[in-house]
Automatic annotation (TrEMBL):
Pfam families: DAGK_cat. One of its GO terms (biological process) is sphingosine biosynthetic process. Keywords: ATP-binding, Kinase, Membrane, Nucleotide-binding, Transferase. GO terms for cellular component: cytoplasm; endomembrane system; membrane. It is found in: Endomembrane system. SUPFAM superfamilies: NAD kinase/diacylglycerol kinase-like (SSF111331). One of its GO terms (molecular function) is ATP binding. This is sphingosine kinase. Coiled coil: none annotated. Residues 138-285 form the DAGKc domain.
Length: 540
């Protein structure tokens, strides 16, 4: 079948068609057909077969340029693509010479027309999911990139130069790079820097640097505007949970660096921005923290922090930490309460194999008399009055600073509202509240999470009494997310809108997004779409 017949039988509209020479190498002639579904490339030499297709979704764009002095008539255009090869994306650049006219100006116009049209079609469609507000980064765009040179194996800067910089250049994306110098440096900059000239803030590190940036933005007097600045994640740490989650939501299979970094850089270049849920966390001492990933108390937080000594080993440090902690398995005393998602009219399945019914003997509904449900409203500090990072946590201010209402939470010095559930057990092996699908690049902890804006917190807990062997099996299965099908009678999962954790001691480790906070009572509620993140979209 010839190209015209094949194209006519397809459902795609033909936009451009022409014959060009592919370079470098032997000067083979090709027919290119640009349609609404892709760029079809067919070699003319020999017996024509079905054309190869370059999908618009795999294309970063195209640019036209003048030929060398030895070719005064020719003009060229290059198509930059990153098609998936197995689990990985690999660069494929196709360069074509336009020389069909004796007039170099006509050749220039043809090359520029093709380059412009290919670039337009490479722009992602803006999806609609449940009324969520999606958008695209502008073109041209300017990024502010925070890079932690000590993240993971300490190779972030070399990874940036090797993988990220070439892709940004080919996508014609401008950037300013800040190499962080100390803990909380990114938080200080996100809090104090004028961000008006940047279209997005990008973190190249692990999840800890994103935690700094998110909370730095929320420290600002103009937090309600600043937190809507699109964020981007480029994995170069030992955890990389947010990057792995974004990769999963887009439909890609689980990969490690550098493949995960290439995928996330590709998403950044495509520029699709989605709303991202954040969890507002209030502590007993008055600190106000914002989380995009997780709150952990018990086994998971112990492994995360105690494995810091193995940080130079990369993500394998978590495996080592798990084995070490299993040899000295602890229990943690405290109280856990939550507002089930169905209380807010959200469907929350409790029929997943291996999950306990939250209404079973593991939990009980408690009533607190006629106490009215109270709202907690928290003001944000003015950065001009902050001597230290801790100065912003939970301090109320007057003036015109906007407030965020945690309407589902009662004050921590009062009982939870009567329609909440209080877990009957008071000894736990772990308690984990997560918003994303992954807790690490190879830790698929919450396979039920489908996107950045699910409007849910997934609360997991394991009461005391689980055998070490069962806990080990769960964590080994968590690599591919199959732990949810193991019918483990000890694992409880509840989709919630809000939760409260009250440790009875003060020496346990509690982490928010992998960062240690003071061990004290805390509570949190989800705020749907409060942040925005550049990502690869959501698989259908």
């Amino acid at each position: 079948m010839d190209l015209k017949t094949w194209s006519a039988e397809s459902s795609s509209e033909i936009l451009l068609c022409g014959g060009f020479t592919q370079v470098p190498g032997p000067p083979d002639e090709y027919v290119l057909t640009l349609t609404t579904s892709g760029l079809y490339v067919q070699r003319l030499k020999g017996t024509p077969g079905v054309p190869e297709v370059v999908r618009h979704s795999d294309c970063l764009g195209s640019c036209a340029f003048r030929g060398p002095p030895a070719d005064p008539l020719g003009y060229y255009f290059i198509v930059t693509t990153y098609p998936p090869v197995g689990r990985r994306r690999r660069e494929l650049c196709l360069t074509f010479r336009v020389g069909g006219s004796p007039d170099p100006e006509a050749n220039r116009q043809t090359a520029e027309t093709w380059a412009r049209r290919i670039t337009q079609l490479a722009t992602p469609d803006v999806p609609t999911h449940g009324g969520a507000e999606y958008s695209l980064l502008p073109r041209p765009c300017q990024l502010l990139i925070f890079l932690n040179p000590h993240g993971g194996h300490g190779a972030a800067l070399s990874l940036f130069k090797e993988h990220v910089l070439p892709m940004l250049s080919k996508a014609e994306i401008g950037f300013s790079l800040i190499v962080t110098e100390r803990p909380n440096h990114a938080r200080e900059l996100a809090r104090e820097k004028n961000l008006d000239r940047f279209d997005a803030l990008v973190v190249m590190s692990g999840d800890g640097l994103m935690y700094e940036v998110v909370n730095g933005l929320m420290d600002r007097p103009d937090w309600s505007v600043a937190i809507k600045k699109p964020l981007g994640i480029l994995p170069a740490g030992s955890g990389n949970a947010l990057a792995a989650s974004v990769n999963h939501y887009s439909g890609h299979k689980q990969v490690m660096n550098p493949d995960l970094l290439i995928n996330c850089t590709f998403y950044l270049c495509k520029g699709l921005v989605s709303p991202m849920d954040l969890v507002s966390i209030i502590t007993a001492s008055g600190k106000h923290i914002f989380s995009f990933l997780s709150v952990a108390w018990g086994f998971v937080s112990d492994v995360d922090i105690e494995s810091e000594k193995y940080r130079m080993l990369g993500s394998i440090r978590f495996t080592i930490g798990t084995l070490v902690r299993l040899t000295a398995l602890r229990t943690y005393k405290g109280r856990v309460s939550y507002l089930p998602a169905e209380e807010e009219g959200t469907s929350a399945s409790t029929t997943i194999p291996g999950l306990l019914d939250p209404n079973s003997s593991h939990s009980e509904r408690l009533s607190f008399g006629t106490q009215a449900r109270q709202n907690s409203i928290y003001n944000f500090c003015n950065s001009n009055n902050m001597g230290t990072m801790e100065g912003c946590g939970g301090h109320q201010r007057g003036g015109d600073i906007p407030t965020l209402e945690d309407s589902l939470l009662a004050p921590l010095d009062q009982s939870v509202p009567k329609h909440w559930t209080v877990v009957k057990e008071e000894k736990f092996v772990l308690v984990l509240a997560v918003q994303q699908s992954h807790l690490g690049a190879d830790l698929f902890s919450a396979p039920m999470v489908t996107g950045l804006n699910d409007r849910l917190i997934h609360l997991f807990y394991i009461p005391a009494g689980i055998p070490r062997s069962s806990l080990l099996k769960l964590f080994l299965a968590m690599e591919d997310g199959t732990h949810m099908t193991h019918n483990c009678p000890h694992l409880v999962h509840v989709p919630v809108k809000a939760f409260r954790i009250e440790p009875f001691g003060s020496k346990d480790i509690i982490t928010v997004d992998g960062e240690v906070i003071e061990c004290e009572p805390l509570q949190g509620q989800v705020h749907s779409g409060l942040g925005r993140l550049v990502n690869g979209g959501r698989k259908s």
